[in-house]
UniProtKB/TrEMBL annotation:
Residues 4-154 form the Calcineurin-like phosphoesterase domain. This is Phosphoesterase. Its cofactor is a divalent metal cation. It comes from the Bacteria. InterPro entries: Calcineurin-like_PHP_lpxH, Metallo-depent_PP-like, Phosphodiesterase_MJ0936/Vps29. Its EC number is 3.1.4.-. The keyword Metal-binding applies. Keywords: Metal-binding. GO terms for molecular function: hydrolase activity; metal ion binding. The keyword Ribonucleoprotein does not apply. It holds the Pfam family Metallophos_2. Belongs to the metallophosphoesterase superfamily. YfcE family. It is an enzyme of class 3 (hydrolase). The lineage of its organism: Bacteria, Bacillati, Actinomycetota, Actinomycetes, Micrococcales.
Amino acid sequence: MPLNLVLVADTHVPKRARDLPAQVWSAVESADVVFHAGDWVSATHLEEFRRRSRLLVGVYGNNDGPELRRSLPETAEITLEGVRFAMVHETGQAKGREARCEARHLEADVLVFGHSHIPWDTTTPRGLRLLNPGSPTDRRRQPACTFMTATVDSGKLGDVRLHEVLRD
């Protein structure tokens, strides 16, 4: 049976938004596994994710203070249905990203990251899939706020989708 995943990053609650849009919370609550690639901003927001998620995998970001850094790792790794995931907040500039990520995450099949608020979905020459879900609360220079969903089944990542966040 496939696992349903939700990928988010850069939620910045309560600085960029008071809360996540209902569409995002609904996706989180129905997912088997939720990945959050940092910049939560408040420990209360982390606790709300923990409460609403069946399984939460998270890392801290550059806007996360000491309390969140004590609660979350800088890098997370998990294997789901034979697919090896790694997650970090920041991967550096876009130029050269694939080569840097391949060198740093040799064992991973998928790297989830955030920081830029720019959705990203590429595959490196070695086959490492790089996924940035953007931000569901702060679109910056993007046309819309976003998050991602995906599935994992029988050792394969599939059905990766970028979702535009609808305004509540």
